[in-house]
Specification:
By secondary structure, this protein is mostly helical. Helix content is 81%, strand content 0%.
């Protein structure tokens, strides 16, 4: 009897130690992910899964590490497993939806984001990411509705306002586009939104303001500068500033944009 009690005690101790080891390994995995060391994250979470093939959190974490490593098939597999073994985690469905979106399956992505929202209506990212898919499918009213919900949850996220500005620009609501872009730029200046704001100004006939914005966009590096040269060059042409326009087209071509060459041949020879 004593031996059986001793064995039982050892088994309990082993279970406790193994549980502690699993928890510690998971925390190391999360730390590696937060440090953008996705290879290490995959190695550690694989050890967790080998020890317990029902570890939903490990599958979910490895799945997003695979996604960040652009290994989409492996990401999809892990996130589907995670969503099946624990259907209560909103973040798992959001990450799965983002993989569908990367595959170009926007309809399934939207359905999966909707599942994520049903589990957590307080996560701004669920609404923003669904809006991005809706925008690409030209479902602008639905996207705008989601974006305003996202703003109500986090009014400091510049991407929400930038996406809203893009939709207004596409739907020829230039004044509203400017307001949205200005808000985004005030939160986090970047070349994309400054350039798009310049396009809105140009469409309103405010050419000098547009040129000032395009010139400002050169201070940032998140979009190809060749496109900015072309946009600014076309506005210079409208202002009858051929020399400045041709210089911008030349610069665009030097950066590898064939449209710069085509515009040079058309306007500068």
């Amino acid at each position: 009897m004593l031996n059986m009690k001793f064995i039982s005690l050892l088994l309990s101790l082993f279970i406790i130690l193994n549980s502690f080891s699993q928890s510690s390994l998971y925390e190391q995995s999360k730390k590696s992910y937060d440090e953008n060391d996705y290879k290490k994250t995959i190695e550690l979470t694989t050890k967790l899964i080998e020890s317990d093939n029902k570890d939903c959190k490990a599958y979910a974490l490895r799945g997003i590490a695979y996604k960040q490593s652009n290994e989409l098939a492996l990401a999809m597999n892990d996130l589907l497993v995670a969503a099946t073994c624990d259907s209560t985690r909103s973040s798992t469905f959001r990450n799965l939806a983002n993989v569908y979106a990367l595959y170009g399956d926007l309809e399934t992505a939207i359905l999966t984001f909707t599942k994520a929202i049903s589990l957590d209506k307080t996560d701004m990212n669920n609404f923003l990411d669904r809006a991005l898919c809706e925008k690409e499918l030209n479902r602008y009213d639905e996207a705008i509705e989601d974006l305003f919900i996202a703003i109500s949850l986090d009014s400091t996220n510049h991407e929400i306002y930038g996406t809203l500005g893009e939709i207004y620009l596409r739907t020829v609501k230039y004044d509203q586009a400017l307001k949205a872009f200005n808000k985004s730029i005030s939160l986090s200046p970047n070349a994309l939104n400054i350039t798009l704001s310049g396009l809105a100004q140009a469409n309103l006939g405010n050419f000098n303001e547009a040129i000032a914005l395009f010139t400002k966009a050169f201070e940032y590096n998140d979009v190809p500068k060749s496109g900015i040269y072309i946009y600014r060059g076309e506005i210079y042409l409208r202002l009858s500033k051929k020399e400045e326009a041709c210089k911008d087209f030349e610069n665009a071509y030097k950066l590898g944009d064939i449209e710069g060459w085509n515009l040079q041949k058309k306007h500068c020879q």
